Amino acid sequence: MNRLLIIGHTLPEAKTTAAGVRMMQLIDMFSNAGVDIVFASVADQSEYSETFVGYQVRFESIRLNDASFDTFLRKEIPDMVLYDRFMTEEQFGWRVSEICPDALTLLDTEDLHFLRKARQEAVENGKPVHEANPYSELAKREIASILRCDLTLIISEVEWKLLIEKFHLPEALLYYLPLFAEAPSDQGKLLLPQYDARQHFVTIGNFKHAPNADAVRHLKIRLWPAIKRVLPEAQLYIYGAYATSEIERLHSEEEGFLLQGWAPEAHEVLRQVRVCLAPLRFGAGLKGKVLTAWSVGTPVISTSIGLEGLDNHTYPRFAADTPTEWASEAVRLYQDKSYWHQQQQLGFSLLTQRFEPSLFKVPFLEHVTTLLLTLKEHRNAHFITQVMRHHTLQTYKYLSKYIAEKNRSKQ
User: Fold this and answer.
1) Helix (H) or strand (E) holding 404
2) Do 288 and 159 share a structural domain?
3) 221 and 345 belong to one structural domain
4) Does pLDDT of 133 surpass 70?
5) Which residues contact 157 (CB under 8 A, 6 or more apart)?
6) Residue 403 CB neighbours (<10 A)
7) 294 & 251 share domain
8) Integer-rounded Cα radius of gyration of the chain
């Protein structure tokens, strides 16, 4: 049985973030394939953290910049190591390379952090996201991490194309593996609340994630007032963990702008309402809230960023800085039963065509198996990974040793 070591920057929170959903999908896929999984993290458990109950996963607490991790690696001897984001690879990759040089190294990007940050900076500087400058220091770090790993999992086709066409990364170092999502069966569709049984609007998302916080502020200031003027009886329910005091102050009973806190079961929240609002002005990767809404038959109003990588431009999208257009679409979706059903069916269709788990699981696991059997040949064919490890990791190695020595001197 192969052993997979997952090194997590945080413990997955599948009920608060799409990143948590993603990690649990990976764990489920490897576990069902009979892989022995160890999840290691420096992070403490939060009230939202997964406990791995029901999964064949062993959790281990590890320390950063500490030689105890070397001892841990020598005990585990993993066949594969998966980093949950590039910062984790920066912190632990050099130790893995030294102690387990024959382990297959996988990097899960979740989304491209440098792309999300570049778009955020563009919006905050009053520029459209297509003018975002991706050639940043963060991009250098993240792409260097990709080049040090044997295989990097890319969640969005847009990001896959960006890395290949703009940054000229070798295709063989990348693997497109999106979030999985399923449309309900025909019987399941009949069990969903129908149009007449639904009312009001919802938006949902973890407020630690900057695009979500920005979207809720934008809803409050510009978009919801325009919708509310046309639909005065409608209410907007806002769900999400980690709301700041600034976000909590946006709550207004009079305006029907209702902060509801964390939703333990996002599916249940989304299946009760008529329309989901996702006015994301920046971001990257895939939006879990959109996929979840589609899976319970709830149409979504979103932006080009919100729908990026999801639909090949077949699903309606609206610029978040056009309140009149948003209000018009909101009213149409809310009041036009035929149009609502049309958008619901389109969501179901996109899930089936593009995100059905059976489309990806077997091919991915077969690819990983092939890499395990031909790792030497793969690394020789892409020698850049060894070059990057040899040079770049020395920086992290001696920085880590310096920090460890500094910490010891304080004790």
Assistant:
1) helix 384-410
2) no
3) yes
4) yes
5) 176, 178, 309
6) 13
7) yes
8) 22
pLDDT band at 396 (very low <50, low <70, confident <90, very high): low
* Three-class secondary structure of residue 350 per DSSP: helix
Q: Which residue matches tokens 């050099």? A: 94
Question: What tens digit of pLDDT does each residue of 57-66 get?
Answer: 999 999 988 8
**Percentage above 90 pLDDT, the chain:** 84
pLDDT, tens digit, 9 for 90 and up, residues 162-179: 999 999 999 999 999 999
Structure tokens at 348: 């179901």
Helix-helix angle 384-410:137-148, to 10 degrees = 110
Q: What is the pLDDT of residue 393?
A: 65
Cα–Cα distance measured from residue 267 to residue 285, given in angstroms and rounded to the nearest whole number: 20
**Does 369 lie in the same domain as 347?**
no
Residue 402 neighbours by CB distance under 10 Å? 11
222 plus 86 within the same structural domain: no
Q: 120 is written with which tokens?
A: 């955020």
Instruction: Please state the length of the chain.
Output: 411
The total number of structural domains that make up the chain: 2
DSSP states of 315-332: S-B--TT-HHHHHHHHHH
For the record, the structure tokens of 31 come out as 């576990």
Q: Which of helix, strand or coil describes residue 269?
A: helix
pLDDT tens digits along 318-342: 988 889 999 999 999 999 999 999 9
Give the DSSP H/E element, type plus range, for residue 120.
helix 113-124
pLDDT at residue 383, as a whole number: 86
Q: What is the mean pLDDT of residues 217-221?
A: 95
* Partners of 302 in the β-ladder: 278, 317
Domain co-membership, 133 together with 223: no
Among 354, 373, 392, give the residue marking a domain's end: 354
Q: Mean pLDDT, to the nearest integer, of 129-158?
A: 96
| 365 and 345 both lie in a single domain | no
CB atoms within 10 A of CB 386: 13
* 8 A C-beta contact, residue 46 and residue 14: no
Same domain? For 64 and 109 the reply is yes
What is the domain-level CATH number for residue 87?
3.40.50.2000
In the predicted structure, residue 77 carries a pLDDT above the cut 90: yes
Q: Which tokens go with 300?
A: 């979504």
Out of 335, 354, 373, a domain closes at 354
Domain that holds residue 154: 3-180+357-410
**Per-residue pLDDT, 334:** 97
Element (DSSP H or E) covering residue 289: helix 288-295
